[in-house]
Design goal:
Length: 221
């Protein structure tokens, strides 16, 4: 399998793609897709990057693993394909947007509409074996996606990073807080949200205020 990044990203991550670990990762992912059902589809592994070029990134949302059920994952964290039932975390994301911004709860859980506006929906691990959450963790993806976050921090300014839950919050160490905006809260999963760590964080209105103050367009959440 050829794990090729879109050219707008490859320019900034070329040295990473040439590292031995990335070659090993490519071999691992190729073997997994040959022998097992894996998600997302091969063509969608780098969807987050295809919908949002390096220089168009305005906001970064970090997830952990792709969904591992049939027809769910589409290469964007928290996102599902059109017509697919919304997973619990996504339901809570939409509920928070509803109360924060007064936006009507959407029919589609496909977040390509966010990505096309400059929201990088980045899972730390970009692939997974069907029905086996975490099965592709610690194979090299995390090293690669950490490099993506570091490169964005280094090369860009005034990005809004939304770090939800303890896993995402650990990525703050990769981000220069003197030149970027970091928003943190609990995870939108039911366990965290029901304990009061998610609802009311107002991340979506806060993000738009930051973007407006910088003279950038708001995100239509």
């Amino acid at each position: 399998m050829d794990l090729t990044l879109p050219s707008s990203w490859e320019h900034y991550l070329k040295s990473e793609l040439e590292q031995p670990y990335f070659q090993e990762l490519t071999q691992f992912v190729t073997k997994e897709y040959d022998e097992y059902t894996c998600y997302p589809k091969k063509a969608e592994i780098f969807s987050a990057f295809e919908h949002c070029s390096f220089l168009n990134v305005k906001v970064v949302i970090i997830g952990q693993d792709p969904y591992h059920g049939p027809d769910q994952a589409n290469g964007l964290c928290f996102s599902v394909k059109d017509g697919i039932k919304h997973p619990p975390s996504l339901v809570n994301i939409f509920k928070e947007i509803e109360t924060d911004l007064g936006v009507v709860y959407p029919k589609s859980g496909n977040l390509e509409r966010w990505a096309d506006q400059g929201v990088l929906l980045l899972n730390a691990t970009l692939t997974v074996r069907a029905h086996e959450p975490g099965s592709h963790q610690k194979k090299g993806w995390e090293k690669f996606t950490d490099a993506v976050i570091s490169k964005l921090s280094e090369e860009r300014t005034d990005l809004v990073f939304m770090l939800w839950g303890s896993f995402a919050k650990k990525k703050a160490k990769l981000i220069d807080s003197s030149k970027h905006h970091i928003l943190t809260s609990g995870h939108p999963s039911p366990i965290s949200a029901n304990r009061g760590y998610w609802f009311g964080n107002k991340h979506f209105s806060t993000c738009n205020k930051i973007l407006n103050d910088l003279g950038n367009k708001s995100i239509i959440w």
